[in-house]
Amino acid sequence: MDFFGIYTPDPRIARVRCPLFLCYGGDDAGIANADDVAVAARNAKGSPRVDVRIVEHAVHAFIGREDEAAAIFADWIRTLG
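^ that's the sequence the OP posted. Answer follows.
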């Protein structure tokens, strides 16, 4: 399933109606890359806010960078007020 709309014209991400946080590992080219995430963010038309963060030198599960990823997630959550 192409949730983000990389390959489909009517992606499910367009139905998201809450703030959306897209976070991926910079060394995660097999799962996502900057272009894929840009498409996903652009396709999230129903979301009032889309934020994208990259955890540099991290893979999909943020192995070895978990603390940094957790801090990034926590910082974003705090912005929701």
